[in-house]
Amino acid sequence: MRKLLYLFLLLALCAGSAGAKKKAAPMPAVRSEAEIVLEQELKYYFYQAMLRLDQNRYDEAMALLLHCEKIAPDDAAVNHYLGIMYGGLNQKERAFAYHERAYRLYPDEYWYAYCVQLFQTGEKTKKLTAIRELEKLAQRHLDDLQMQETLQQLYLNTGDLGKGYSDKALIKKAIRQQDRIDRIEGPSPYGSAQRYQLLAAIGQT
Q1: How far is CA 149 from CA 83, 108, 176, in A?
Q2: What phi, psi does 162 have (nearest 5°)?
Q3: Against a cut of 0.90, is the pTM above it?
Q4: Helix axes 33-54 and 76-88, enclosed angle (nearest 10)
Q5: Closest Cα to residue 144, out of 195, 90, 181?
Q6: Could you give the angle at which helices 167-185 and 145-156 cross, rounded to 10 degrees?
Q7: Contacts of 88 (CB under 8 A, 6+ apart)
Q8: How confident is the prediction for the chain on average, in pLDDT?
Q9: Of the ranges 35-44, 113-122, 157-166, 168-177, which one carries the lowest mean pLDDT score?
Q10: What is the pLDDT of residue 18?
């Protein structure tokens, strides 16, 4: 399989995020016998796919994940990992489609790959969508350090998006994010320096 370096990087990137847990999403609580058998089959093949990934047997992992998709097309974890695999093959549109589906199915778990890929398109409307989606999640997960830091980085790595997201407004939002970050991990020299630089950027030092 070609372009595995990209796959390695994306796997490493997602491994520490909420969206990289090696488990299939739970089935509904009330299930028929057929659904239980289907769930067991999904778990088996998904586990085998993760095992092949750990062993760098990517072709086999892809085949197993595609089989999982046939069993449960709406499983968020399956969609997430298919997004990673297609990203490794540089099939960006297909990869993004899978990441978006995983996000829509289970946003609290699979926000990272979706929002970051949206932002990295460089398109103004998609950057704005990424920020707004992550803002909604960050309001619900005020103690999630990775989410709060990622949102701050989105604010700091974009230009004027208009509609309340001007350069100055984004810096102010980044300062508020620093407040949240400091509340989670406590004051630090880095946080103080970050806050000073942001205040200086809008002339409030």
Answers
A1: 23, 16, 11
A2: 70, -175
A3: no
A4: 30
A5: 181
A6: 160
A7: 1, 3, 4, 6, 7, 10, 58
A8: 85
A9: 157-166
A10: 41
Inter-residue contact 114 to 103 (CB < 8 Å): yes
Distances (CA, A) of 202 to 39, 82, 130, 195, 198: 54, 43, 24, 11, 7
> Which SS3 state, helix, strand or coil, does residue 202 take?
coil
pLDDT, residue 31, reads 67
Residue 195's H or E segment, with its range, is helix 189-201
pLDDT for res 35: 77
- The two structure tokens encoding residue 171: 């810096």
**145 close to 115: Cβ distance less than 8 angstroms:** no
The Cα–Cα gap between 114 and 98 comes to 9
Q: How far apart are CA 87 and CA 105, in angstroms?
A: 19
**Listed range (57-71, 121-135, 162-176) with the worst mean pLDDT:** 162-176
Q: d(Cα 79, Cα 113) in Å, to the nearest integer?
A: 12
103: left (phi over 0), alpha (psi -120 to 50) or beta: alpha
